[in-house]
Amino acid sequence: MVLFRIAYAPAYFLLFVGGAAMLVSSGAAPIWLVILLLAAIAISLVAERVAPFERHWNQNHGDTPRDIAHALVNEGSILILVLLLPLFASLVPWPSMWPAALPFWAQLLLAILLLDAGISLAHFASHRIPLLWRFHAVHHSVRRMYGFNGLLKHPVHQLIEISVGTLPWLVMGIPQDIALVGSFAVAIQLQLQHSNVDMRLGPLTYLWAVAPVHRHHHLASETDGDVNFGLFLTVWDMILGTARFSSSSHIRAGKLGIAGRPDYPDTYLAQLGEPFKQWPPQSDTVQGRHERLV
User: Fold this and answer.
1) How many C-beta atoms lie closer than 10 Å to residue 172's C-beta?
2) Which among 263, 254, 255 is positioned nearest to 283, based on CA atoms?
3) What is the pLDDT of residue 291?
4) CA 259 to chain centroid
5) Residue pLDDT, tens place only, 50-71
6) Nearest Cα to 168, choosing from 179, 155, 177?
7) pLDDT tens for residues 194-228?
8) Residue 284, SS3?
9) For residue 219, what is the DSSP state?
10) Which of 46, 75, 70, 68 is nearest to 58 (CA)?
């Protein structure tokens, strides 16, 4: 079991991202990426029961229909945007600057690094700019962490993050096959970030922003949760001074959510509308943290 806890995260990432790369390289239809993602979700759910970090998070909280709705809308929109990439690229008035001569794996690594920088900085800004925080708060409303609810985001915030993250892709003229696998890697990473598997990462903890690091970010605290914004890597948090590498073993049931907002809605449609409402006065202290400009 110890070996499983050590090997799970690297094996999961390499297996599914590598599988996506093989499918795309062989010219498989995009529907196969959807099937592969469903397999990844299933494996994540099984692993969380084999080696759970917090058993209570494996129990049904009545949030499954909401999480399914978020996943369908968000992952479907990403797939559509990537498939439309050639259309967007045709609007760029200069030749592609993408290093297409590099091996596929090197191009994929570059794509992930560029995406990681943009999305991580957009995430950081979402905790500082009130308007962005209203939409991002949907993601922080979760009261348990398990891989599947890593895909839970308000579609407006998802569009903002993806627009910022993929701008370098568009400017440089990324090939569609690299963009497909890079986008798939995000879905896999989000599941590892929110996984309820009791991972043992060793030195990788200081580099890779998966669950043991990311749990700090979901604490229902005005200060303790204001850390670890990175999507793939922790380097951006080290630069921003927001990295926290201490043990997250104390972050258990009852410690997640939005401080000051126990009334935050749980259903999908209510969460879509919540950012457009006036938040109650008791949330002012919480929102004040997110209004602070760097």
Assistant:
1) 17
2) 263
3) 38
4) 21
5) 999 999 999 989 999 999 999 9
6) 179
7) 999 999 999 999 999 999 999 999 999 878 899 99
8) helix
9) B
10) 46
Residue 258 corresponds to which tokens in the numbers above? 């939005």
- The residue among 101, 122, 149, 121 whose CA lies nearest residue 256 is 149
How many residues are given for the chain? 294
Which residues lie closer than 8 Å to 131 by C-beta, 6 or more apart?
A: none
Mean pLDDT computed over 134-148: 95
Task: Name every residue whose Cβ is closer than 8 Å to that of residue 155 and which is 6 or more positions away in sequence.
Answer: 73, 74, 77, 272
Tell me if 145 sits within 8 A of 211, measured CB to CB. yes
Q: Please report where in the chains the tokens 């592609």 appear, as a residue.
A: 96
| Closest-CA residue to 118 (of 268, 230, 207) | 230
Residue whose entry in the numeric block shows the structure tokens 């969380």? 48
Tell me how far CA of residue 3 lies from CA of 30, 43, 182, 273, in angstroms.
34, 17, 28, 44
* Structure confidence at residue 86 (pLDDT): 80
Nearest one of 200, 156, 194 to 51, comparing CA atoms: 200
The arithmetic mean of pLDDT across residues 74-78, rounded, is 92
Q: For residue 274, what is the DSSP state?
A: G
Residue 282 pLDDT > 80, yes or no? Answer: no
Q: Given a cut of 50, is residue 175 above it in pLDDT?
A: yes
pTM of the complete model = 0.92
Which residue has better confidence, 81 or 119?
Answer: 119
Average the pLDDT over 89-100 and give the result: 89
CB 190 within 8 A of CB 150: yes
Residues in a beta bridge with 256:
219
Label residue 38 by pLDDT band (50, 70, 90): very high
Contacts 24+ apart (CB under 8 A), 259-265: 259/220, 259/221, 259/222, 259/225, 259/286, 260/222, 260/285, 260/286, 261/137, 261/141, 261/286, 264/137, 264/141, 265/141
For residue 197, what are the β-bridge partners? 52
